[in-house]
Amino acid sequence: MEILPVGAAGSNCGAEYWMPNDELEQDRLDLQHAVFNELLQGKLGLAPVENPQSILDLGTGTGIWAIEAATLWPSAEVLGTDLSPIQPDYVPANCHFEVDDAEDDWIYSRPFDYIHLRLMFHTFKDHTRVIRAAYDNLVPGGYVEFQDYYCRLGCVDDTMRGTALERWTHMYVEGGRRLGRDMLAPKRYRQWLTEAGFEDVTEEKRAIPGNAWPRGKEAKMMGVWQMTNFLDGLQAVSMRIFTKGLGMAPEEVELFLVDVRKDIKNHGIHFYFPTYIVYGRKPFGKETEREGEATEQGAES
């Protein structure tokens, strides 16, 4: 599977995109949504939003989350943005899509009640810039929510120790760091949201099984889906980071991934994806005014 900048894959966007956007990748993204649907027990998010009227889905991918949000909240206007225009043509009337880069200046005609981001940890060079933009583009009382992997794979015992999969997770984090991407950013979302001025910042940690090792029926099913998701995306998520970030030859990467795939399929390795769901509320009007007054008083003194 060739990894191309979005422009080379037919997008009108000139920004660089680290993943393919072909039909196979779109199927994988929809499977990924099914995994999160199971993880969140059928919910689109955990933030306590009530009847939102304006919703922004950043990095919308195939648009499946935005489409379901538009169906769940039929009175809301839902906007999904992505670097690549791969969304379907036939969607609910209250759902729209635009090609946009979240790290560019945000220019929207109205503020949002709810801003949603899923699996964007590897996308941003500066997460705090995006968080500040989200704050500025929310109505008072509006919520932003991140749903992301923490990309140092976990294991419930020592069965991952010394495996190619364990080496892969450390190499992936280091390669991303060398390319200016913080693969461990989700651990800092709570801090960054608080520093940006969000109130009621909440962090929930959950685990997605890496394959079918769990005994419980629902967890095992989620693990099967996640294993397929991981295997289908492994070459794409690894190749650029390992070649550009770690200086490996493509052939060397492919050879290494043979062993990683064996480990992913091995039910004797009890690994999981640590997953962070972090959300915060923009203060209501009076709270925001007090913040402004405090800032002015501090400047005067």
Q: What is the CA-atom radius of gyration, in angstroms?
A: 20 Å
Sheet with the most strands? 8 strands, mixed
Which CATH class is shown?
Alpha Beta
> What is the typical, i.e. mean, pLDDT?
89
Q: What are the low-pLDDT stretches, counting only 5+ consecutive residues below 50?
A: 1-15, 289-299
Which structural class is indicated by helix and strand composition? Answer: alpha/beta
Helix content: 25-40%
InterPro entries: SAM-dependent_MTases_sf
Family: Belongs to the methyltransferase superfamily. LaeA methyltransferase family.
Pfam families: Methyltransf_23 (PF13489)
GO molecular function, one term: methyltransferase activity
Describe the structure.
There is one protein chain. Strand 1 (54-58), helix 2 (64-72) and strand 2 (77-82) form a beta-alpha-beta unit. The protein has helices spanning 23-39, 64-72, 127-136, 164-178, 189-196, 217-245, 250-265, 285-300, and strands at residues 54-58, 77-82, 95-99, 112-118, 138-149, 154-155, 199-209, 271-281. The model is unreliable at 1-15 and 289-299 (pLDDT under 50). The protein contains 8 helices and 8 strands, in the order αβαβββαββααβααβα. With 301 residues, the chain is of the alpha/beta class. Helices cover 40% and strands 20% of the residues. GO terms for molecular function: methyltransferase activity. This is S-adenosyl-L-methionine-dependent methyltransferase. It holds the Pfam family Methyltransf_23.
